[in-house]
Amino acid sequence: MQVHNKHIIVTGGASGLGGACAALFQSHGANVTVFDQKPEAEVEAKRGQLYKQVDITKEAEVAEALLEAEETNGDLYGLVNCAGIGSAKKVLSSKGPHDLETFQKVIEVNLVGTFNMLRLAAEKMKSHEPEETGERGVIINTASIAAYDGQIGQAAYSASKGGIASLTLPAARELATAGIRVVAVAPGVFETPLFASVPEEARQQLEALTPFPKRLGDPQEFAELALHIFQNTMMNGETIRLDGAIRMP
Description:
It contains seven helices and nine strands. It is an alpha/beta fold. The model has no long low-confidence stretch (mean pLDDT 94). Keywords: Oxidoreductase.
């Protein structure tokens, strides 16, 4: 699917991986809508991008925002789910067991929020006429290498991203009859606001662990893969690691 003149929604699109995707898709002629939780006044204005302050875990809020987005940018053909949060807490520490509230919050935002967007966006995509290829839409979800190589303190985050990876194939199989492809990307360690608080020593260790290139990933590289997924019709039902061959010890 070519993205020119296609309406594509990017969640978490105000910064980081989502921000890079929104900018790249727009540069290729897509009608981009950004969903993010930041107040509009705090978001740098991007010419040509429609912005909606949306909590992706809220059904009614997402449904209303989708309707308004289609009224402005036309039928929905693409969704890139980048919205997410992190957590660093041990299952059992000197302070006691991992609090349930934090675990539930991470699962709610990362996994439930992703599924909420996927199901409601798929309903919109199914309602319009397909391309000549038979495609009606493309959905890209963001997993993580933490789904496979989760570290101490990442129980909640790894569980949420593992859920996204596991969701990919059954969703792709089910939505195939509607001409909707579903792919997940599992990025490694990327230069994003979520990673900004990591101490320099830890950052250097992670760079050293990456076989090649020995650096953090650039959000632009994530965006370029997302664009290719849209353009390559055979890419479906897979979770793609984008990590410089890093395998966390």
